[in-house]
UniProtKB/TrEMBL annotation:
<protein>
    <submittedName>
        <fullName>ATP-binding cassette domain-containing protein</fullName>
    </submittedName>
</protein>
<keyword id="KW-0547">Nucleotide-binding</keyword>
<dbReference type="InterPro" id="IPR027417">
    <property type="entry name" value="P-loop_NTPase"/>
</dbReference>
<dbReference type="Pfam" id="PF00005">
    <property type="entry name" value="ABC_tran"/>
</dbReference>
<dbReference type="GO" id="GO:0005886">
    <property type="term" value="C:plasma membrane"/>
</dbReference>
<dbReference type="GO" id="GO:0016887">
    <property type="term" value="F:ATP hydrolysis activity"/>
</dbReference>
<keyword id="KW-0067">ATP-binding</keyword>
<feature type="domain" description="ABC transporter">
    <location>
        <begin position="5"/>
        <end position="240"/>
    </location>
</feature>
<dbReference type="InterPro" id="IPR003593">
    <property type="entry name" value="AAA+_ATPase"/>
</dbReference>
<dbReference type="InterPro" id="IPR003439">
    <property type="entry name" value="ABC_transporter-like_ATP-bd"/>
</dbReference>
<keyword id="KW-0813">Transport</keyword>
<dbReference type="GO" id="GO:0005524">
    <property type="term" value="F:ATP binding"/>
</dbReference>
<dbReference type="InterPro" id="IPR051120">
    <property type="entry name" value="ABC_AA/LPS_Transport"/>
</dbReference>
Amino acid sequence: MTALLHCRDVQHRFGALEVLRGVQLAVTVGERHALIGPNGAGKSTLLKLIAGEERPSGGSIHYRGQDITRYPAYRRARIGIGRGFQHSTLLESLSAGQNVALALTGGRLLARQGDCRRLAEVDVALGSVGLRDMAPVPVAAMSYSQRRRLEIAVALAARPQLLLLDEPAAGMSGEERGTLVELLRAVPPTVTVVFVEHDLDVVFDVATRVSVLHLGAVLLTGTGQEVRRSREVQEAYLGGRREEVPGVPRGA
Ligand SMILES: Nc1ncnc2c1ncn2[C@@H]1O[C@H](COP(=O)(O)OP(=O)(O)OP(=O)(O)O)[C@@H](O)[C@H]1O
């Protein structure tokens, strides 16, 4: 199947620091593709390169068969690449509904009365992340978990075909992570998701495929089960601590 997103030999350096040394990554339509790997492996950098926030030092990035390596971020957003952030980009003084409305309208606030179709879309977007009742509530009054879910609603409101999420479960409690897993599973299959995540329970509950980044390259791409069972991944990512990988019994 043709890849929706294809990173070919992508390299990136920050000054003398070589972060990515030739990443090969192919993501097909409808995947929930997790990027995992040790701290500093270059996962967030790879997301930034895909979103167009950084320009790769080498290699190329293709989206729907188009070479987008030189496209700026706004042009990638226009062709369907959406981004959720590791740190909040919500407007604190506005309500949850207004934040979603801004994303829907590309920066315009809705009039108090009227624009019913848009208001209905805001309602649907908030409902999809379990926040329908929070429409009038200012972001400043929302809990951390509610904000993280709102960020996903805001990212989805722009109707991306490819949604990039950086550590969506960061800072969440066990219960909140459960809600997030349900939410990510409920993202429509027309939206392909590539996400960076450290929480392996979330990764293996959500991802249809997983790529392990190590030393600036993809060590392995496979199903959750293939990744869990890979001795190479155990050694590179978990220092051989096999028992820490969910689903793999000690001594397996
Ligand atoms: N803007 C930057 N300037 C210089 N170095 C950077 C910059 N951004 C990231 N780095 C460095 O690049 C390396 C990879 O960082 P990156 O954030 O991509 O890793 P990561 O795999 O996402 O790590 P983590 O899991 O800890 O978030 C790290 O050594 C980091 O310090």
